[in-house]
Write a structure and sequence with these properties.
Layout: H1 2-25, H2 57-63, H3 72-84, H4 104-109, H5 115-119, H6 122-139, H7 141-147, E1 151-152, E2 155-156, H8 159-169, H9 171-179, H10 194-200
Helix pairs in contact: 8-9, 8-10
């Protein structure tokens, strides 16, 4: 009897240890359902500028986050993200180039003839962006003075919204939109419209951009 017990005990121990290790290696899992409040069923529209945040001076010294607020830098970076996600070296399916997605004709108008060199040069791209804003601001100077601060087609019209829309569709089309009270509008090949750009890029301080007639690089 003792011989059987002495032989049986090691087998029982091996069985117990094997079962225990299997339970560790292969845990049971339960299906988890994401709460409805955390589900996203469609893209979330991002509005610019961000809401201002009040931070104590002591907290600012310890955290020092890169708040851009409604500054010119915030405006151009928000617009660049919408155009190319801020990529200096990208060309889209329609042939528009760089961080701010310029066409070859606009570049030539501003004095840039070598598009390959333009695409490789972030500093030049920043200069071209500001120069184009200066040109558009000159062309639209009377419309900015006349319509900024008013409502058209349910939109709050601002200087930054007008300049962003001009970047999208050209200053001539923006004039038509404003002077027709929003009835004459256009959109690009990807579905972005003048009214959409006026909405998401409203309220920035673009006073740093000076209107210049026929500027060139």
């Amino acid at each position: 009897m003792r011989k059987w017990i002495s032989k049986l005990i090691p087998l029982i121990m091996i069985f117990i240890l094997t079962s225990f290790s299997y339970n560790i290696m292969v845990p049971s899992t339960a299906k988890v359902t994401l709460p409805k409040t955390l589900k996203i069923n469609e893209p979330t529209e991002v509005l610019y500028p961000k809401y201002k945040t009040t931070v104590d001076d002591d907290e600012m010294l310890s955290v020092n986050p890169p708040f851009l607020g409604d500054s010119y830098t915030a405006f151009k970076e928000a617009l660049a993200f919408k155009e190319s996600q801020g990529d200096y070296f990208v060309t889209n399916t329609l042939g528009y180039l760089g961080k701010y997605q310029f066409g070859a004709e606009t570049l030539q108008l501003l004095g840039v003839t070598n598009v390959a060199s333009f695409l490789r040069n972030p500093i030049l791209q920043e200069k071209v962006f500001y120069t184009n804003l200066s040109r558009n601001k000159w062309i639209l100077r009377r419309d900015i003075k006349r319509f900024a601060g008013r409502k058209i087609a349910g939109l709050d019209i601002t200087e930054s919204g007008i300049l962003a829309a001009a970047h999208l569709a050209g200053p001539g089309n923006v004039k038509k939109f404003l002077r027709s009270r929003g009835t004459r509008t256009v959109q690009d090949a990807y579905g972005s419209s003048i009214s959409y750009y006026m909405k998401i890029f409203s309220g920035y301080d673009v006073s740093a951009v000076k209107p210049v007639r026929n500027p060139r690089i």
